Amino acid sequence: MNDAYRVSAAAGLLREHDLASQLGANNRNVSRPGEWPEGPHPEPLGLDLLPVPAFDSDLLPAGWRLWIADVADRMQAPADFPAASAVVAAGGLIGRRIGIAPQERTDWVEVPNLWGGIVGRPSVMKSPTMNAAFAPVRRLEHSAATSHAEAMKLHAVELAIHDLKKKAATENAKAAMKKALRAGGTEPAMPGLDVRDPVTPVRKRFILEDTSYEKAGEIMADNPGGITILSDELVGFLKPLCRAERAEARGFWLKAWNGMDYYPFDRIGRGSILTPCTASIFGGVQPAKLAAFLKDATTGGEGDDGLLQRFQVLVYPDVGADWQDTDRLPDKLARTAYTGSLERLASIDPTSVGASGHEFNPIPVLRFCPEALEYFRDWREAHEKHLRTGDLHPALESHFAKYRTLVPCLALIFHLVDCPQGGPVSADATLRALAWSEYLAAHAARIYGSVTLSERTGARLIWKRLKAAGCLPQVFTVRDIQRKGWAGLVEADGIRDALKVLVDHGLIQRREVPASVTGGRPAENYRVNPKAEGLP
Hints:
alpha/beta
């Protein structure tokens, strides 16, 4: 691991591909009828997705590398899938039980509950790789459920005995009262009524998969360290939160990302519950569904409040065409090492690793060692200055702004995985976290750039038809395309979005036809740039 950790590479990547243009900047290319504009020369549609680096196993703690590689090989999936899953799984197990103070003296504290996911087409092994990474956490969940069931059986016996004792105590008290009254006493003794109810066992929870925010709040109240939400389809979890009537639920989950707040539940029949609100979230998502959701979240829609930008460990790797049948047993030693590290995190004692809190911040925290602190300070200075350049699209700026939280949290996770003895967060763990920031920045660029993926896909389809003789007239309209009934080109708004991509690339020209010409409402039509012949 070297010191090449700054975000300058990611910044250069974003500038090189002009992401702001992809997310909505419009190269206007409209002219008066009869003229071909002098604007941009026609250019090929280019790649659908921005490039991302291949996953480097050095990004992982040493004890995880063999297992992540084994999962990826057996499932013929990108290593990015199980790696991102493992990082969020580890952060969820630590939760708010241990935090990190990123500065030397201030009371700024972060806790490592992370949100993330894996983006890929159907059938690229998203769920199986995610399940392999979360298998130790599921095992903890199953073990806790079994233990709770046994505890509840014992509790039922205790309740039965308690009721008998309470009944006997009540009868004894009544007899004592009668005796005292017969003797003329004015304040008869009430012996035996101080029989306390048995405490109901609390079930330890690690994972929730299908729950309302109200129920999640109840479970968090019993599990103040935090829980992890898993979802096979992240957009299915996120999209309902965009509805106005779900504003309370959205507010709850936004607070759960912070990890250190409390959420008040005041309900008739339930009383008042002040819930420690901490949750990690992870799941899979298909590119097309994510692109549609992103479009709303980056263009001022109801989802444009930073919820999506909190999914910082979100990866969208390339999936190669090569595939081979890999039928072998899992690497037992590698799996044991990985499982053991997560189980240790689940039961970690903050004091055993040197974490401590105080009256104004009861969450036990670790700080960077001197060398790690210098690395983080240098990185943050460059990062904060880059955020203030104005070069980034607002959606990406919001996303990257949260890296000041992400980097120290990743450093804490890697440190606790690599160093069971604890102590100040190491320089090695910090460099690894900074390397992750560059890796994730490239994936963020691809993901936010995919906002226009559906439009570019439609643009390719239209351009292919335009180059085929006789498919469309030389001057055509949106209605002409609709009449063809081509797959994916039915809705007028979707067709216009696709045509806009072709206009922006200088391949076609949009022309407005005034009402004086149409004899009715204004209209629009399109024609191909004669200079674009021969372009792919």
